[in-house]
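Pasting two entries for a bug report.
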Amino acid sequence: MSMLGQDVIDVGSKHLGDKYVLGARVPLDNPTWRGPWDCAEFTSWCAYQSYGLIFGAGKVSKVSQADPYSGYWYSEAKQKATVISWKDALSIPGAVLIRAPAQGPIGHVAFAIGDGESTLEARGAAFGVGIFKKADTRPWSIGCLLPGVEYGKVSARPAKPTPAPWAGGLLWLRRPPFKGPEIVALQRALARHRIDPGPIDGEFGPMTHAAIVTFQAANGLEVDGVVGRQTLNALGLDYPIVATEDDVRIYAEARTPKGPAKVALPPPVDFDGIVGISQSGRTFTAKTKAGETFIVGSVTSYSDDMHRLGLFQGTMAIRDSLRFGTYKASDFPALGPWGHFIEPTLCAEGGGRFATLNTYDRAAFTFGAPQLAAHTPGENFIEYFRKLIELPDATQHFPELSLLKNAAGKKTLHLKKGSTFEDLEEVVLVTRPNGKKENQLARLMAYLNPSATKVDDRELSVAARLMNWLRLDPKAKELQIEVFVNRMQAKLKTAKTKVNGFDGKDWRTALWVMDILHQGRGTYAEMARAISSPSPEASLKKIGWPTYKERIGTVESGVRKLATSGVLDGFKV
């Protein structure tokens, strides 16, 4: 039997009106599946049901392993299929139109109806599965013809590049990125809607893309990261965007080189503050007024829900950071057994170094022996930072920050901006580049690390000042441990109500539960199953194995030392 391009249209059209969910997983071999769908899952399911073809689903040996993704459709089209112009594809029933993901996971896939403008697709939460016109006004990368499928007589011309900048007034995340005063206007409009687009720099990068996705999700629009007429209208902008004189001025200023970072020396003459940060290759070194120097970190790239650039600490930086101290229970006698109980976990978190730094992952800024992360509202890094700003010498280290009452009358961390103050603890519902919604301290993250795709002056300055504070004041170390112990006590108290069989009477079991909770590598249900097993401690160790093999080994070694010493005999949490 011949396999015809029209077949996928016939199969997919039976699902018009079905629900769309970004990231939905679909069993390709289930012919009775009725949704939910996302775009790649829908096209892969139709291809499998029509042709028995596993396509756009990654390198898999059997259909049950298939995990369709627009990026796989793009790469497999170039490797296994016939690539054609997307405009040509629109005139071929069953041909595939693909918009490749740029930085981040969001691309798109659709089938052409064949009339030159219409597509069959799982388009978005606001649309579901349907047949949509005006596909020729939307951005696509390539068209493709699936292998072994008859599409009739096709004059396949070489694929053309994606539309030229500003084509049709549309904007999206691409390489190289769209730049100009029009992007400034877009970023300012997002900021007016209280959605952080990252730096107002006129560059449509990953943070602006993530802000667009957040705005679209919050306003019931198609969540595709593409800025078109509907998104601009909702933002209160013209289509296409018309830049104002202010937009032009701001863009010009953003494009003007500003030279190296300069950290102003606070007034007290006896304060050994940061006076400069220099760069050698990919490594940054801070210098204090008295001539003390130390490595802040080096540039690294990392991909989680998007491609990021930030600071990490390599071998030289780790060795250099030892001057700021590492955690030892004997240095905190007031904690009693708790001081020993937390030691294995702190050793697993960067060797227990008080100056451990990471600005390259989705938390934006992680610091300290417990690796306190900046993105979580009400806990971790913000607790620590707030306590630091309460110290008497806080104005020497961070003169731009204050603790002020917010609208609810609670004292929160504020950033001075001219004659006004911005509440850095305001919780923002963010849609991450992978489509997941999450409450974050977006303004705190933007203060600490303005751009996820480059190393900023502010990012370096904050990191250097925090490290210097550890050098000058032992209280800065004590507060890290105070915050961590308080947080772990609260988490274990909650675990007793959430994890069946967990009562905290066995310190070994409790320590593993604490470590799992702090790292976030397991659920309450997984821990409950482990505790109800014949060997609770051994079963808890297996949670996260082998992905976190090294960390689990570090904790296991620490538990053995504590058991041998007997220091926690009889300890309960």
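Entry 2 (this is the one that rendered wrong in the viewer):
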Amino acid sequence: MRGGGVTVGREAGLATALAGPRAGRSASLVRSGRKFAESVLKAYSGVYFGSTLLPGVFFLAATFVAVPRHGLLGLAGLLLTQGAARLLGVDPEGRDSGFYALNGLLVGLALGLFYRPTPALFGLLAVAAVWTVAVAAAARSLAERLLGVPVLSLPFVLTTWAALLAARRFFGLELTLEPIWAAGLGAGHLPALVELYLRSLSAALFQLSIPAGLLVLLGLVLSSRWAALLSVLGFTAGLLTYELLGGPTTDLSVEIIGFNFQLAAIAVGGIFVVLSPGSLALAALAGVLAAGAGAALLILLQPFDLPPLALPFIVTVHLLLYALGRRTRAGRLDLVRGVPGAPEENRQRARGLARRYPDPATPLIYLPVYGDWWISQGHDGEHTHQGSWRHAWDLEVRDPEGFTCRGEGTSPADYLCYGLPVFAPGDGQIVHAVGHLPDCPIGQPDLEHNWGNCLVIWHGGEVYSLLAHLQPASLVVSVGDRVVAGQLVARVGSSGRSPRPHLHLHVQGGPLPGAATLDAELLHYVEQEPTGPLYRTHGKPPASATVAALAVAELRREALAFPVGRRWRWQGQLAGRPVEEEWSMELDLLGRRSLVARPGGGRLDLHGERAYTTVLRHQGPGGTLLHLLALGLPRAPHTEQPVRWTDELSPGPALTPLGRVLYELALPFGELAALRTTSRIVPDPALLIVETRLEVAGLLARLTRPLPDTIRLVASSDGGPVRLGATRGGRPWAEATCLTEPA
């Protein structure tokens, strides 16, 4: 019995050892297969600027409706191009995103429009696949670096032209017109204009049938409702242009240029330009310009017997984006920042950035003093902050009774702010320093030396900060010194045009005192309000406000550090059901940090710095612990102060399907709903406790899914988040505990 048991144990161990590598290989193959399938569907989806997988399924199916072997040629072009990209070792991001595959797909479909699928055609496709990758890599670099515009499908156009020209010397290829004959498939059942629209829509995939157009339209609606509407707008504008100018509207289908109007409108209406009333007008203009470009290219390319393909759309979008990128003022058309998404996503992201973060063009500095300071004069002040010097602050100290001095205040030393330390408001270099002027008697400013003792710090570009009216002989830095934010540089005095001691602070566009001020904002400060201290990530505090620099606590920063490679395993209940999730912190090639949840695949992009942690974006389903964290911790300062702060988020998963449709349709014109949060630090000597109240406001407030009223996060400095809870109507709604041991 014992001997048999040992034998069985050895056999089981051997079986496990043999199965382990096989299981690992199988799992690796499954992951590779899934990754490959995703890149294929992204290529199909990318033809219409999509990035999600489901629309790609419909676009793929559209290529097989009329002539299945035509769809196979497109798939063959895609696969050959992916293989060529791997062979040449081009950037993995381009391969995974479907960029190279998209161009290869279009090359295969375009050649399949003219030639039968013979061995000679597959040989030409293989050669064209290598061309596509090489041209795509070069064109992408040139377009993005030199012109600052996306390359779009230009590699497909250039490669297809080269292949069509080469095919005239390759006599093994056989011409075919079968896909064009399929234009009649499904015709006659819809109004003529609708049929022409559907044919044009599917022509981006070189399909000319009504069923293919319907599949593309369905996929487009699933990808983005506004992309579908923009395609209608672009088609209408281009068609009207042709009709008003007396052009043959058969060009839209027979010459296959109608899809250019639609793609141009989608591109500038919401993909690369933020969706707005202005972008809708620009989309209509793009349809008009693409129609003109299409007609011109038909004539220009006629001697070479080459089709325009997607060039009218590419030329139109490149010209418009290049022109928009060279503006000195943004106007009513904002270019999309970062990686473009669907029009609705771009609109919400732009609004979120405008609401939650400073404008990239706005200079940002820190308060150069510690403790509570009273702003005696702010921007557009009634005394001296006017004209070219309107963007400035005067800072003083007041006691609890509101007095700025002791006793009668007859000398500078009587004032509470006099002699207090002044710190650098940002990293930079000292470019101007004056420190020998005497303090002025109270009420007798020195009008000859307006700024008195002062420092000018260069922060890069054309951004300089000025600290004025400093105490004589208090400067501890000299011209040429490098300084960092928070470094001691001088002390508050009463020199220059200063009737009483105070610190003058502003940002200017030149190195000499007196240069015109810039409209700057302060970073990470606390403003005293009747209801308590309010933390602001950035802003322009007004006159009479009492402000203080945020007191950063290192232990609180560590509690929200979320180190890369760590995992947090959660267990508990959410909305009456048991829940288990595991979070892992991942870092991508661009340095972006994301919490990824499994199961479910939710992703939470985070940004953390010394002063605070903020959620950049949540992707994934609602009703998860990760989504609960996104709602309860949209941002948090690293402080022990019992501060509160507010935020406003996109309603996103909080809306019902009907509410989401209505919300998205109104996006260019305004928001029908917003998710507002009010958070606070709960005092605790050992733990970071953040409590957040949620409120859905707006016309669609009733069309929302159940959400908690309050979310509570508890985190420790050595382990990060340890508990996550929520209540609704005063009753527990969620309660989860992190089971992972601290690192």
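Dev reply: Rendering is fixed now. As a check, the viewer should reflect this: Confidence is low (pLDDT under 50) at residues 1-19.
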